[in-house]
TrEMBL record:
Listed PROSITE patterns: ZF_MYND_1, ZF_MYND_2
Keywords assigned by UniProt, alphabetized: Metal-binding, Zinc, Zinc-finger
Residue ranges of domain MYND-type in the record: 164-201
Matches recorded under Pfam families: zf-MYND (PF01753)
Superkingdom: Eukaryota
Protein name as it appears in the record: MYND-type domain-containing protein
Length: 225
């Protein structure tokens, strides 16, 4: 049995500063006023367009979080974030050579079902309005929709006065791994684990990690995924 330790109530996935809309992501190779909040200062040596430097001097943590939406074209990816749908490619590759970047969709699409979410840490926008990540490890797929992630986040913050998720009686304990719940007993924890929580637990741990981070100051020791 574990005591409930509530996470910061201020953290939420609709925060446009740390979970920006695609259009608000920094565009690779450009210094715009809005870009400055992502990086530690102006670009030192602006290069010709073809180089389009992937900046890494981050000032804050940020993440593009989107839910896979239905797409009219097979093999295309459409992501929904902040109420907007957009068709995108997700690319990675060399820091300074746009033409050598490669699509990650062949790896992503089989795992990212419709209604699932994808997190792209430190995503930047390309000239072609695709989303670029520095490395494939900066991507994580959640087997849940955005509403469900938000519900999990609310539940993490829910006080023990709430009813047991399995049977509805007065709760006294939380999942020993992710500290979410609540549950009235070990047996309710076990049956909720089998039916639902097995999938949720790792996602809740990720949300907890995010909730405990200070997103306003980039910390390279912090692996946010
Ligand atoms: Zn119960
Ligand atoms: Zn758990």
């Amino acid at each position: 049995m574990s005591a409930l330790s509530p996470v910061s109530l201020g953290f939420h996935l609709q925060n446009r500063t740390y979970f920006p809309r695609a259009i608000d992501l920094p565009e690779i190779g450009y210094d715009e006023d809005e870009t400055m909040r992502f990086f530690s200062g102006p670009m030192k040596d602006p290069l010709p367009d073809i180089y389009r430097v992937f900046r890494t001097d981050k000032r804050i943590h940020w993440c593009f979080l989107g839910e896979r939406a239905p797409s009219l074209v097979r093999g295309m990816l459409s992501l929904r974030a902040h109420g907007e749908n957009m068709p995108v490619d997700i690319v990675t590759g060399p820091a300074n050579w746009e033409d050598d970047r490669r699509s990650l969709l062949p790896q992503i699409l089989p795992k990212l079902k419709e209604g699932y979410c994808i997190a792209l840490m430190y995503a930047q926008r390309t000239y072609h309005f695709n989303l670029a990540v520095e490395r494939a490890e900066m991507i994580k797929i959640f087997p849940f929709c955005l509403d469900k992630l938000q519900a999990l986040l609310r539940r993490m913050n829910s006080p023990l006065s709430e009813a047991c998720l399995e049977c509805g009686t007065q709760a006294t304990q939380v999942c020993s791994r992710c500290k979410s719940g609540p549950y009235c007993s070990k047996s309710c924890q076990v049956s909720h684990w089998k039916n639902y929580h097995k999938q949720e637990c790792a996602v809740v741990e990720q949300l907890k990690e995010w909730s405990s981070m200070d997103w306003s100051t980039y910390d390279s020791d912090r692996m946010p995924l």
